[in-house]
Write a structure and sequence with these properties.
37% of the residues lie in helices and 26% in strands. It has 292 residues and is an alpha+beta fold. Strands 1, 2, 3, 4, 5, 6 and 11 form a seven-stranded mixed sheet that branches. The longest helix has 20 residues, at 182-201. Bound molecules: adenosine-5'-triphosphate and L-homoserine. L-homoserine (HSE) is lined by residues 11-12, 18, 128, 130-131, 169, 172-173, 246-247. InterPro entries: GHMP_kinase_C_dom, GHMP_kinase_C_sf, GHMP_kinase_N_dom, Homoserine_kinase, Ribosomal_Su5_D2-typ_SF, Ribsml_uS5_D2-typ_fold_subgr. It catalyses: L-homoserine + ATP = O-phospho-L-homoserine + ADP + H(+).
Length: 292
């Protein structure tokens, strides 16, 4: 029997749509695997009743197939599904690490990125790696379709505020604009490059400034009740940048040093003002998945 933990993640970071991601130090999923003739799945924890146990519908079933590693798989969810915090990716990453160890496959964390991404295809129809890469590798990650993932360790406090509403990735992808102007392209590239430089320097001011995105985030913000008020409240409380986490509904903020608690409280209050319950994780950029 092998148990692995894989962290929640926040994809996009505004300017890096489908490209950037970070691992959060918490929350996380924990997956325990035992050799079996056929894969079976059991789920407990946050939102467990919304998660299918059929291996054809759960991300970990696709991971077990990809590794040719049938097992009884128990998923303990710390990351609520449809949260924008990479819930399905956390299960896929933890299962990949646990099954790799159980069956002595010898793959590296980088090798496991496309394996865990097969799990994501079960949920969204596409093998996106922008959540599984940070969940496996930790730190700040950049994924490109043709050459895997690059990761950078960084030291950065974060607040991830999860409201009690559900936005599915499928719905959030439907509102993504099909085109952008040259001016929007130039602004986005400038912001993304600023953010990446900020991550390399562990500089919350640069990261926050680079999170602005004139294209995808405004369209998705419309799906999140209270987003504008939450954003404003976070800035007033000392955030350097605020954006939609992944496909939403979570909202991610980078607090100035020493302001994390205030930013978290302001975001919860911002959602409350819009009549929406929410919880805020006071977290930071963390490590990737590991066997416990
Ligand atoms: N092991 C799993 N954990 C969580 N969700 C799963 C799992 N297997 C299948 N799913 C399904 O995936 C969907 C949730 O995935 P979705 O991509 O919408 O949310 P998310 O992973 O929290 O978000 P995001 O990728 O935006 O950060 C739900 O429909 C859920 O039933
Ligand atoms: N990059 C993806 C992350 C969610 O899976 C999106 O924003 O749609």
């Amino acid at each position: 029997m092998v148990t692995a933990r894989a962290p929640a993640t926040s994809a996009n970071l505004g300017s890096g749509f489908d490209t950037f991601g970070v691992a959060l130090s918490h929350p996380a999923d924990t997956v325990t695997v035992e050799r079996a003739a056929e894969t079976t799945i059991e789920v407990s924890g946050a939102g467990a009743r919304y998660i299918p146990t059929d291996p054809d519908e759960n991300v970990v079933g696709a991971v077990a197939d990809a590794l040719d590693a049938p097992a009884h798989i128990h998923i303990d969810k710390g990351v609520r599904p449809s949260s924008g915090l990479g819930s399905s990716a956390a299960s896929a990453a933890a299962a990949a690490v646990a099954l790799n160890d159980l069956y002595d496959r010898g793959y590296s964390a980088h090798d496991l990125v496309p394996v865990a991404a097969e799990g994501e295809a079960v949920v969204s129809g596409e093998a996106h790696a922008d959540n599984v890469a940070p969940s496996l590798l930790g730190g700040f990650t950049v994924v490109r379709s043709d050459d895997g993932a690059t990761s950078v360790d960084t030291d950065l406090p974060l607040v991830a505020c999860l409201p009690e509403v559900v936005v599915s990735t499928r719905d959030a992808r439907r509102v993504v604009p099909e085109s952008l102007t040259m001016a929007e392209h130039v602004e986005t590239v400038g912001n993304a490059a600023t953010l990446a430089a900020g991550m390399c320097r562990s500089d919350p001011e640069l990261v926050g400034r680079g999170m602005d995105d004139p294209v995808v985030t405004p369209a998705r913000a419309e799906l999140i009740t209270g987003y504008a008020g939450v954003r404003e409240a976070a800035f007033e409380a000392g955030a350097t940048g605020v954006t939609v986490s992944g496909a939403g509904p979570s909202v991610l903020a980078v607090p100035k040093p020493g302001r994390r608690r205030e930013v978290a409280a302001a975001m919860v209050e911002g959602f409350a003002d819009a009549g929406v319950g929410a919880r805020a994780y006071q977290t930071e950029v963390g490590r990737g998945a590991s066997v416990l």
